[in-house]
Amino acid sequence: MELRRFLSLAEQRGWPLHIPTPVSPRYEMARLLYALDERLTLFDQVEGWAGSVAAGLFARREYVAMALGVPEEGLLPTLVRALNSPVAPQVVERAPCQEVVTTDVDLSCLPILTHIPGDGGPYITSGVAIINDAQGRRNAAYHRLMLTPDRGKCNTFTARLVEGRDTHTAWLQAGGPLPMAVCIGAPLSAQLAAAMSPAPGVDELSIANALAPTPTVRAIGLDLEIPAECEIVLEGYLSQELGPEGPFLDLTRTRDFVRQQPFFVVERITHRSQPIYQALLPGGREHRLLMGMPREPTIYAAVSRVCTCRNVHVTPGGGNWLHAVVQIDKRGPEDGRAAIQAAFEGHTSLKHVVIVDADVDPYDSEAVEWAIATRFQADRDLVVLPDQPSSSLDPSARHVPGAKARTTKLGLDATIHWDTPAGPARPQDWQVLDYEPIDPTPYLRDPEASA
Ligand SMILES: Cc1cc2nc3c(=O)[nH]c(=O)nc-3n(C[C@H](O)[C@H](O)[C@H](O)COP(=O)(O)O)c2cc1C
Known about the structure:
This protein is an alpha+beta fold. The chain folds into two domains: about 5-290, Pnp Oxidase, Chain A (Roll); about 295-420, 3-Layer(aba) Sandwich (UbiD C-terminal domain-like), CATH 3.40.1670. The protein contains 13 helices and 23 strands. The chain has helices at about 5-10, 30-35, 60-70, 75-85, 165-175, 190-195, 205-210, 285-290, 295-305, 335-345, 365-375, 380, 440-445, and strands spanning about 15-20, 40-45, 55, 90, 100, 125, 130, 140, 145, 155-160, 180-185, 215-220, 225, 230-245, 250, 255, 260-270, 275-280, 310-315, 325-330, 350-355, 380-390, 405-415. The strands form five sheets. Strands 5, 6, 7, 8, 9, 10, 11, 14 and 17 form a nine-stranded antiparallel beta sheet that branches. The protein has a five-stranded mixed beta sheet with strand order 19-20-21-23-22, with helices on both faces. Strand 9 and strand 10 form a beta hairpin. It is globular, with a radius of gyration of 24 Å. Flavin mononucleotide (FMN) binds near residues 139, 144 and 160.
Protein backbone atom coordinates (compact mmCIF):
# COMPACT_ATOMS: atom_id res chain seq x y z
CA MET A 1 0.00 0.00 0.00
CA GLU A 2 1.41 3.36 -0.98
CA LEU A 3 2.04 5.85 1.81
CA ARG A 4 -0.72 8.26 0.70
CA ARG A 5 -3.36 5.56 0.65
CA PHE A 6 -2.23 4.42 4.09
CA LEU A 7 -2.55 7.96 5.44
CA SER A 8 -6.03 8.43 4.01
CA LEU A 9 -7.24 5.09 5.49
CA ALA A 10 -5.65 6.06 8.80
CA GLU A 11 -7.44 9.41 8.58
CA GLN A 12 -10.79 7.55 8.29
CA ARG A 13 -9.94 5.82 11.59
CA GLY A 14 -8.98 9.15 13.22
CA TRP A 15 -5.45 7.96 13.91
CA PRO A 16 -3.12 10.75 12.68
CA LEU A 17 -2.26 13.67 14.91
CA HIS A 18 -1.86 16.90 12.92
CA ILE A 19 0.75 19.43 13.99
CA PRO A 20 -0.20 22.70 12.27
CA THR A 21 2.40 24.79 14.16
CA PRO A 22 5.77 25.47 12.44
CA VAL A 23 8.46 23.08 13.71
CA SER A 24 12.20 22.69 13.24
CA PRO A 25 13.75 19.42 12.01
CA ARG A 26 16.66 20.15 14.35
CA TYR A 27 15.77 18.32 17.61
CA GLU A 28 12.24 19.77 17.92
CA MET A 29 10.41 17.23 15.73
CA ALA A 30 12.16 14.27 17.35
CA ARG A 31 11.34 15.54 20.82
CA LEU A 32 7.72 16.07 19.87
CA LEU A 33 7.40 12.58 18.39
CA TYR A 34 8.83 11.08 21.54
CA ALA A 35 6.51 13.17 23.72
CA LEU A 36 3.53 12.01 21.63
CA ASP A 37 4.52 8.37 22.16
CA GLU A 38 5.04 8.17 18.39
CA ARG A 39 1.41 8.23 17.40
CA LEU A 40 1.03 8.46 13.62
CA THR A 41 1.82 12.16 13.14
CA LEU A 42 1.64 14.65 10.27
CA PHE A 43 3.68 17.82 10.48
CA ASP A 44 2.05 20.40 8.20
CA GLN A 45 4.69 23.15 8.48
CA VAL A 46 8.33 22.19 8.69
CA GLU A 47 11.03 24.84 8.46
CA GLY A 48 12.60 24.89 5.00
CA TRP A 49 10.17 22.35 3.48
CA ALA A 50 7.08 23.12 1.45
CA GLY A 51 5.42 19.73 1.91
CA SER A 52 4.38 17.73 4.94
CA VAL A 53 6.28 15.17 6.99
CA ALA A 54 4.69 11.90 8.13
CA ALA A 55 6.08 9.95 11.08
CA GLY A 56 5.20 6.90 13.14
CA LEU A 57 3.84 4.79 10.25
CA PHE A 58 5.01 1.56 11.87
CA ALA A 59 4.68 2.58 15.49
CA ARG A 60 1.78 0.20 16.28
CA ARG A 61 1.02 -3.34 15.15
CA GLU A 62 -2.52 -2.21 14.32
CA TYR A 63 -1.14 0.28 11.76
CA VAL A 64 0.82 -2.49 10.05
CA ALA A 65 -2.19 -4.81 10.14
CA MET A 66 -4.28 -2.14 8.40
CA ALA A 67 -1.59 -1.63 5.77
CA LEU A 68 -1.67 -5.35 4.97
CA GLY A 69 -5.45 -5.67 5.28
CA VAL A 70 -5.31 -8.33 8.00
CA PRO A 71 -6.18 -8.51 11.71
CA GLU A 72 -3.24 -8.11 14.09
CA GLU A 73 -3.06 -11.84 14.79
CA GLY A 74 -2.82 -12.39 11.03
CA LEU A 75 0.44 -10.46 10.74
CA LEU A 76 2.83 -13.34 11.41
CA PRO A 77 1.16 -15.83 9.01
CA THR A 78 0.92 -13.12 6.33
CA LEU A 79 4.62 -12.28 6.62
CA VAL A 80 5.52 -16.00 6.65
CA ARG A 81 3.49 -16.62 3.47
CA ALA A 82 5.13 -13.72 1.62
CA LEU A 83 8.59 -14.80 2.76
CA ASN A 84 7.95 -18.35 1.52
CA SER A 85 6.33 -17.35 -1.79
CA PRO A 86 7.83 -14.16 -3.29
CA VAL A 87 6.20 -12.91 -6.50
CA ALA A 88 8.23 -10.81 -8.96
CA PRO A 89 6.72 -7.32 -9.19
CA GLN A 90 5.29 -5.85 -12.37
CA VAL A 91 7.60 -3.30 -14.02
CA VAL A 92 5.76 -0.17 -15.17
CA GLU A 93 6.87 2.50 -17.67
CA ARG A 94 5.73 5.62 -15.82
CA ALA A 95 5.79 6.12 -12.09
CA PRO A 96 4.58 8.69 -9.56
CA CYS A 97 8.01 8.79 -7.92
CA GLN A 98 9.47 10.25 -11.14
CA GLU A 99 6.99 13.11 -11.66
CA VAL A 100 9.76 15.62 -10.89
CA VAL A 101 13.46 15.04 -11.68
CA THR A 102 16.31 17.20 -10.34
CA THR A 103 19.97 16.77 -11.21
CA ASP A 104 21.13 19.95 -9.51
CA VAL A 105 21.29 18.18 -6.17
CA ASP A 106 21.16 20.14 -2.93
CA LEU A 107 20.22 17.87 -0.05
CA SER A 108 19.63 20.81 2.28
CA CYS A 109 16.24 21.13 0.51
CA LEU A 110 15.05 18.00 2.40
CA PRO A 111 13.67 18.22 5.97
CA ILE A 112 16.25 15.78 7.36
CA LEU A 113 15.89 15.46 11.12
CA THR A 114 18.70 15.93 13.60
CA HIS A 115 17.40 13.74 16.38
CA ILE A 116 19.39 14.31 19.55
CA PRO A 117 22.39 16.39 20.66
CA GLY A 118 25.57 14.35 20.22
CA ASP A 119 24.47 12.63 16.98
CA GLY A 120 26.96 12.96 14.10
CA GLY A 121 24.54 15.09 12.06
CA PRO A 122 21.11 15.10 10.44
CA TYR A 123 20.07 11.54 9.48
CA ILE A 124 17.69 10.01 6.99
CA THR A 125 16.38 6.98 8.89
CA SER A 126 13.44 5.84 6.75
CA GLY A 127 15.29 5.28 3.46
CA VAL A 128 15.07 1.89 1.73
CA ALA A 129 18.31 1.36 -0.20
CA ILE A 130 18.16 -0.69 -3.41
CA ILE A 131 21.28 -2.17 -5.01
CA ASN A 132 22.15 -5.02 -7.39
CA ASP A 133 25.00 -7.31 -6.32
CA ALA A 134 27.78 -8.60 -8.60
CA GLN A 135 25.49 -11.45 -9.74
CA GLY A 136 22.75 -8.96 -10.65
CA ARG A 137 20.61 -9.95 -7.65
CA ARG A 138 18.63 -7.12 -6.10
CA ASN A 139 18.78 -6.27 -2.39
CA ALA A 140 16.56 -3.86 -0.51
CA ALA A 141 17.53 -2.84 3.03
CA TYR A 142 17.44 0.13 5.35
CA HIS A 143 20.66 2.08 5.72
CA ARG A 144 20.77 5.17 7.85
CA LEU A 145 22.35 8.10 6.03
CA MET A 146 24.23 10.86 7.82
CA LEU A 147 24.25 14.13 5.92
CA THR A 148 27.89 14.97 5.25
CA PRO A 149 27.81 18.44 3.74
CA ASP A 150 31.47 19.33 4.32
CA ARG A 151 32.60 17.74 1.04
CA GLY A 152 31.95 20.73 -1.22
CA LYS A 153 28.48 20.30 -2.76
CA CYS A 154 25.68 19.30 -0.42
CA ASN A 155 25.14 15.98 -2.20
CA THR A 156 26.77 13.43 0.10
CA PHE A 157 25.79 11.18 2.98
CA THR A 158 27.82 8.66 4.92
CA ALA A 159 25.91 5.35 4.92
CA ARG A 160 25.96 2.76 7.69
CA LEU A 161 26.41 -0.71 6.18
CA VAL A 162 26.31 -3.41 8.83
CA GLU A 163 29.18 -5.81 8.21
CA GLY A 164 28.24 -9.12 6.61
CA ARG A 165 24.79 -7.96 5.47
CA ASP A 166 23.97 -8.11 1.76
CA THR A 167 24.58 -4.43 0.91
CA HIS A 168 27.94 -4.54 2.67
CA THR A 169 28.96 -7.71 0.82
CA ALA A 170 27.88 -6.25 -2.54
CA TRP A 171 29.78 -3.01 -1.82
CA LEU A 172 32.94 -4.96 -0.93
CA GLN A 173 32.62 -7.08 -4.08
CA ALA A 174 31.96 -4.05 -6.32
CA GLY A 175 35.48 -2.73 -5.71
CA GLY A 176 34.36 0.61 -7.25
CA PRO A 177 31.22 2.76 -7.15
CA LEU A 178 28.09 0.70 -6.41
CA PRO A 179 24.90 2.25 -7.89
CA MET A 180 22.26 2.71 -5.18
CA ALA A 181 18.80 4.24 -5.03
CA VAL A 182 17.33 5.30 -1.68
CA CYS A 183 13.54 5.39 -1.49
CA ILE A 184 11.88 7.66 1.07
CA GLY A 185 8.16 7.20 1.70
CA ALA A 186 8.22 3.81 -0.05
CA PRO A 187 5.05 1.66 -0.16
CA LEU A 188 4.56 0.04 3.24
CA SER A 189 4.96 -3.46 1.74
CA ALA A 190 8.42 -2.47 0.47
CA GLN A 191 9.37 -0.97 3.82
CA LEU A 192 8.37 -4.13 5.69
CA ALA A 193 10.14 -6.42 3.22
CA ALA A 194 13.32 -4.31 3.35
CA ALA A 195 13.42 -4.89 7.09
CA MET A 196 13.47 -8.67 6.54
CA SER A 197 16.64 -10.63 6.04
CA PRO A 198 15.76 -13.49 3.70
CA ALA A 199 18.42 -15.83 2.32
CA PRO A 200 20.99 -14.04 0.10
CA GLY A 201 19.65 -13.63 -3.42
CA VAL A 202 15.99 -13.62 -2.37
CA ASP A 203 14.53 -10.36 -3.67
CA GLU A 204 12.87 -8.29 -0.93
CA LEU A 205 10.76 -6.42 -3.49
CA SER A 206 9.27 -9.74 -4.61
CA ILE A 207 8.41 -10.42 -0.95
CA ALA A 208 6.88 -6.92 -0.84
CA ASN A 209 4.86 -7.70 -3.96
CA ALA A 210 3.60 -10.92 -2.36
CA LEU A 211 2.40 -8.83 0.60
CA ALA A 212 0.57 -6.34 -1.65
CA PRO A 213 0.97 -5.30 -5.29
CA THR A 214 4.20 -3.25 -5.36
CA PRO A 215 5.00 -2.29 -8.97
CA THR A 216 8.53 -1.20 -9.84
CA VAL A 217 9.99 1.21 -12.35
CA ARG A 218 13.47 1.56 -13.79
CA ALA A 219 15.44 4.32 -12.04
CA ILE A 220 16.09 7.27 -14.37
CA GLY A 221 19.89 7.14 -14.31
CA LEU A 222 20.70 3.74 -12.81
CA ASP A 223 20.36 0.15 -13.96
CA LEU A 224 18.02 -0.60 -11.04
CA GLU A 225 14.30 -1.17 -10.61
CA ILE A 226 12.73 0.54 -7.62
CA PRO A 227 9.21 0.72 -6.12
CA ALA A 228 7.19 2.98 -8.43
CA GLU A 229 5.01 4.49 -5.71
CA CYS A 230 7.65 6.11 -3.49
CA GLU A 231 7.48 9.74 -2.47
CA ILE A 232 11.15 10.65 -3.00
CA VAL A 233 14.07 8.73 -4.57
CA LEU A 234 17.77 9.59 -4.24
CA GLU A 235 19.76 8.09 -7.11
CA GLY A 236 23.53 7.84 -6.77
CA TYR A 237 26.32 5.50 -5.79
CA LEU A 238 28.14 4.12 -2.76
CA SER A 239 31.77 5.12 -3.15
CA GLN A 240 34.76 3.10 -1.91
CA GLU A 241 35.95 6.22 -0.11
CA LEU A 242 35.27 6.21 3.64
CA GLY A 243 34.49 8.86 6.23
CA PRO A 244 33.44 8.88 9.89
CA GLU A 245 29.80 7.90 10.48
CA GLY A 246 28.10 8.45 13.85
CA PRO A 247 27.58 8.78 16.71
CA PHE A 248 23.92 7.82 16.42
CA LEU A 249 21.22 7.03 18.98
CA ASP A 250 20.19 3.55 17.92
CA LEU A 251 17.70 0.80 18.56
CA THR A 252 18.86 -0.19 22.04
CA ARG A 253 18.56 3.50 23.06
CA THR A 254 22.33 3.56 23.50
CA ARG A 255 24.71 5.59 21.34
CA ASP A 256 26.20 3.67 18.40
CA PHE A 257 29.82 4.74 18.02
CA VAL A 258 31.77 6.32 15.15
CA ARG A 259 32.98 4.00 12.37
CA GLN A 260 34.63 4.55 8.98
CA GLN A 261 31.83 4.02 6.43
CA PRO A 262 31.31 4.63 2.68
CA PHE A 263 29.98 7.83 1.20
CA PHE A 264 26.68 7.79 -0.67
CA VAL A 265 26.89 10.45 -3.39
CA VAL A 266 23.52 11.60 -4.74
CA GLU A 267 23.44 12.47 -8.45
CA ARG A 268 19.72 12.87 -8.99
CA ILE A 269 16.55 13.35 -6.90
CA THR A 270 13.22 12.22 -8.31
CA HIS A 271 9.92 12.74 -6.51
CA ARG A 272 6.17 13.14 -6.73
CA SER A 273 4.81 16.60 -7.06
CA GLN A 274 4.26 17.78 -3.46
CA PRO A 275 6.15 14.88 -1.91
CA ILE A 276 5.61 13.73 1.66
CA TYR A 277 8.84 13.23 3.57
CA GLN A 278 8.89 10.32 6.03
CA ALA A 279 10.58 10.57 9.41
CA LEU A 280 11.33 7.62 11.68
CA LEU A 281 12.42 8.20 15.28
CA PRO A 282 15.64 6.27 16.05
CA GLY A 283 15.45 4.22 19.23
CA GLY A 284 11.70 4.76 19.38
CA ARG A 285 8.91 2.18 19.26
CA GLU A 286 8.53 2.48 15.49
CA HIS A 287 12.19 1.82 14.84
CA ARG A 288 12.09 -1.16 17.17
CA LEU A 289 8.85 -2.62 15.82
CA LEU A 290 9.96 -2.25 12.22
CA MET A 291 13.24 -3.98 12.93
CA GLY A 292 11.95 -6.72 15.19
CA MET A 293 8.59 -7.72 13.74
CA PRO A 294 9.97 -8.78 10.32
CA ARG A 295 12.37 -11.14 12.14
CA GLU A 296 9.43 -13.05 13.63
CA PRO A 297 8.63 -14.83 10.32
CA THR A 298 12.28 -15.77 9.72
CA ILE A 299 12.55 -17.20 13.26
CA TYR A 300 9.19 -18.93 12.76
CA ALA A 301 10.35 -20.47 9.47
CA ALA A 302 13.63 -21.73 11.01
CA VAL A 303 11.96 -23.17 14.14
CA SER A 304 9.23 -24.79 12.03
CA ARG A 305 11.92 -26.81 10.27
CA VAL A 306 12.82 -28.59 13.55
CA CYS A 307 9.56 -28.72 15.52
CA THR A 308 6.01 -27.37 15.60
CA CYS A 309 6.25 -23.62 16.06
CA ARG A 310 3.11 -21.81 17.24
CA ASN A 311 4.19 -18.20 17.62
CA VAL A 312 7.19 -15.89 17.88
CA HIS A 313 7.49 -12.58 19.71
CA VAL A 314 10.59 -10.40 19.38
CA THR A 315 10.15 -8.56 22.66
CA PRO A 316 10.38 -4.81 23.38
CA GLY A 317 12.63 -5.21 26.45
CA GLY A 318 15.40 -6.54 24.21
CA GLY A 319 15.11 -3.50 21.94
CA ASN A 320 12.83 -5.60 19.68
CA TRP A 321 16.04 -7.09 18.34
CA LEU A 322 18.13 -9.05 20.85
CA HIS A 323 15.44 -11.09 22.65
CA ALA A 324 12.66 -13.40 21.48
CA VAL A 325 10.09 -15.73 22.97
CA VAL A 326 9.23 -18.76 20.83
CA GLN A 327 6.07 -20.72 21.53
CA ILE A 328 6.11 -24.37 20.45
CA ASP A 329 3.89 -27.44 20.55
CA LYS A 330 6.32 -29.78 22.23
CA ARG A 331 6.14 -33.25 20.68
CA GLY A 332 9.52 -34.73 21.60
CA PRO A 333 12.19 -34.45 24.31
CA GLU A 334 14.63 -32.45 22.16
CA ASP A 335 12.15 -29.93 20.72
CA GLY A 336 13.06 -27.15 23.16
CA ARG A 337 16.80 -27.32 22.50
CA ALA A 338 16.30 -27.70 18.75
CA ALA A 339 14.06 -24.63 18.78
CA ILE A 340 16.79 -22.62 20.55
CA GLN A 341 19.38 -23.45 17.88
CA ALA A 342 16.92 -22.79 15.06
CA ALA A 343 15.82 -19.43 16.48
CA PHE A 344 19.42 -18.21 16.36
CA GLU A 345 19.62 -19.31 12.72
CA GLY A 346 16.36 -17.50 11.94
CA HIS A 347 17.66 -14.20 13.32
CA THR A 348 21.43 -14.02 13.49
CA SER A 349 21.44 -10.93 15.73
CA LEU A 350 19.32 -12.67 18.38
CA LYS A 351 21.18 -12.94 21.68
CA HIS A 352 18.75 -14.49 24.20
CA VAL A 353 15.75 -16.70 23.48
CA VAL A 354 13.14 -18.33 25.71
CA ILE A 355 11.14 -21.32 24.47
CA VAL A 356 7.66 -21.75 25.99
CA ASP A 357 4.80 -24.22 25.68
CA ALA A 358 1.57 -23.56 23.83
CA ASP A 359 -0.24 -22.56 27.06
CA VAL A 360 2.14 -19.64 27.73
CA ASP A 361 1.34 -16.34 26.03
CA PRO A 362 4.56 -15.08 24.39
CA TYR A 363 3.25 -11.47 24.49
CA ASP A 364 2.78 -11.58 28.30
CA SER A 365 6.19 -11.02 29.91
CA GLU A 366 4.84 -12.06 33.33
CA ALA A 367 3.60 -15.38 31.91
CA VAL A 368 6.98 -15.98 30.26
CA GLU A 369 8.79 -15.28 33.53
CA TRP A 370 6.34 -17.64 35.24
CA ALA A 371 7.27 -20.38 32.77
CA ILE A 372 10.97 -19.81 33.54
CA ALA A 373 10.20 -19.91 37.26
CA THR A 374 8.13 -23.10 37.17
CA ARG A 375 9.39 -25.18 34.21
CA PHE A 376 13.08 -24.40 33.81
CA GLN A 377 16.11 -26.03 35.47
CA ALA A 378 19.39 -24.29 34.68
CA ASP A 379 21.58 -27.44 34.76
CA ARG A 380 19.27 -29.16 32.27
CA ASP A 381 17.53 -26.53 30.17
CA LEU A 382 20.13 -23.80 29.62
CA VAL A 383 22.03 -23.50 26.33
CA VAL A 384 25.10 -21.22 26.29
CA LEU A 385 26.88 -20.60 23.00
CA PRO A 386 30.11 -18.61 23.44
CA ASP A 387 31.87 -16.60 20.71
CA GLN A 388 28.99 -16.21 18.27
CA PRO A 389 28.39 -13.54 15.61
CA SER A 390 26.67 -10.62 17.31
CA SER A 391 24.45 -7.71 16.58
CA SER A 392 26.47 -4.53 16.09
CA LEU A 393 23.94 -2.79 18.34
CA ASP A 394 24.81 -4.54 21.61
CA PRO A 395 27.22 -2.28 23.49
CA SER A 396 28.40 -5.25 25.59
CA ALA A 397 29.49 -7.31 22.55
CA ARG A 398 33.14 -7.55 21.48
CA HIS A 399 33.41 -5.06 18.61
CA VAL A 400 36.12 -5.44 15.96
CA PRO A 401 36.51 -2.60 13.40
CA GLY A 402 35.34 -3.66 9.92
CA ALA A 403 34.23 -7.13 11.08
CA LYS A 404 31.19 -8.67 12.69
CA ALA A 405 31.01 -8.23 16.48
CA ARG A 406 31.10 -11.34 18.72
CA THR A 407 28.90 -12.30 21.66
CA THR A 408 27.75 -15.15 23.87
CA LYS A 409 24.23 -16.40 23.12
CA LEU A 410 21.89 -17.94 25.63
CA GLY A 411 18.73 -20.00 25.30
CA LEU A 412 16.30 -21.04 28.01
CA ASP A 413 14.09 -24.03 27.38
CA ALA A 414 11.17 -23.13 29.66
CA THR A 415 8.91 -25.88 28.33
CA ILE A 416 7.64 -28.69 30.56
CA HIS A 417 10.35 -31.32 30.76
CA TRP A 418 9.57 -34.40 28.70
CA ASP A 419 10.42 -36.99 31.33
CA THR A 420 8.63 -35.35 34.23
CA PRO A 421 8.17 -38.19 36.71
CA ALA A 422 4.72 -39.12 37.91
CA GLY A 423 4.12 -38.28 41.54
CA PRO A 424 4.26 -34.94 43.28
CA ALA A 425 4.99 -33.09 40.03
CA ARG A 426 2.62 -34.66 37.52
CA PRO A 427 2.35 -32.89 34.12
CA GLN A 428 -1.23 -31.84 34.90
CA ASP A 429 0.12 -30.01 37.95
CA TRP A 430 2.18 -27.75 35.70
CA GLN A 431 -0.76 -25.73 34.43
CA VAL A 432 -1.91 -22.43 35.90
CA LEU A 433 -4.93 -22.98 38.16
CA ASP A 434 -7.71 -20.43 38.17
CA TYR A 435 -10.31 -19.92 40.88
CA GLU A 436 -13.91 -20.28 39.75
CA PRO A 437 -15.42 -16.89 38.91
CA ILE A 438 -17.72 -15.31 41.47
CA ASP A 439 -19.61 -12.01 41.53
CA PRO A 440 -18.38 -10.10 44.61
CA THR A 441 -21.09 -7.37 44.44
CA PRO A 442 -23.55 -8.91 46.91
CA TYR A 443 -20.77 -9.44 49.45
CA LEU A 444 -19.86 -5.77 49.39
CA ARG A 445 -23.38 -4.53 50.28
CA ASP A 446 -23.95 -3.64 53.93
CA PRO A 447 -26.76 -6.01 55.04
CA GLU A 448 -27.93 -3.39 57.58
CA ALA A 449 -28.27 -0.66 54.99
CA SER A 450 -31.85 0.03 53.83
CA ALA A 451 -32.67 -0.56 50.19
C1 LIG B 1 14.51 1.36 10.64
C2 LIG B 1 15.63 0.47 10.28
C3 LIG B 1 16.91 0.97 10.21
C4 LIG B 1 17.98 0.15 9.83
N1 LIG B 1 19.21 0.68 9.71
C5 LIG B 1 20.21 -0.07 9.20
C6 LIG B 1 21.49 0.51 8.92
O1 LIG B 1 21.71 1.71 9.15
N2 LIG B 1 22.45 -0.28 8.37
C7 LIG B 1 22.23 -1.60 8.09
O2 LIG B 1 23.14 -2.27 7.57
N3 LIG B 1 21.03 -2.19 8.36
C8 LIG B 1 20.04 -1.44 8.89
N4 LIG B 1 18.82 -2.02 9.14
C9 LIG B 1 18.62 -3.45 8.87
C10 LIG B 1 18.42 -3.69 7.38
O3 LIG B 1 17.26 -3.10 6.85
C11 LIG B 1 18.29 -5.14 7.02
O4 LIG B 1 17.31 -5.74 7.79
C12 LIG B 1 19.58 -5.84 7.23
O5 LIG B 1 20.59 -5.09 6.63
C13 LIG B 1 19.55 -7.23 6.66
O6 LIG B 1 19.17 -7.25 5.33
P1 LIG B 1 20.09 -7.95 4.23
O7 LIG B 1 20.84 -9.06 4.92
O8 LIG B 1 19.10 -8.41 3.21
O9 LIG B 1 20.98 -6.86 3.73
C14 LIG B 1 17.75 -1.22 9.55
C15 LIG B 1 16.45 -1.72 9.64
C16 LIG B 1 15.41 -0.90 9.99
C17 LIG B 1 14.04 -1.47 10.03
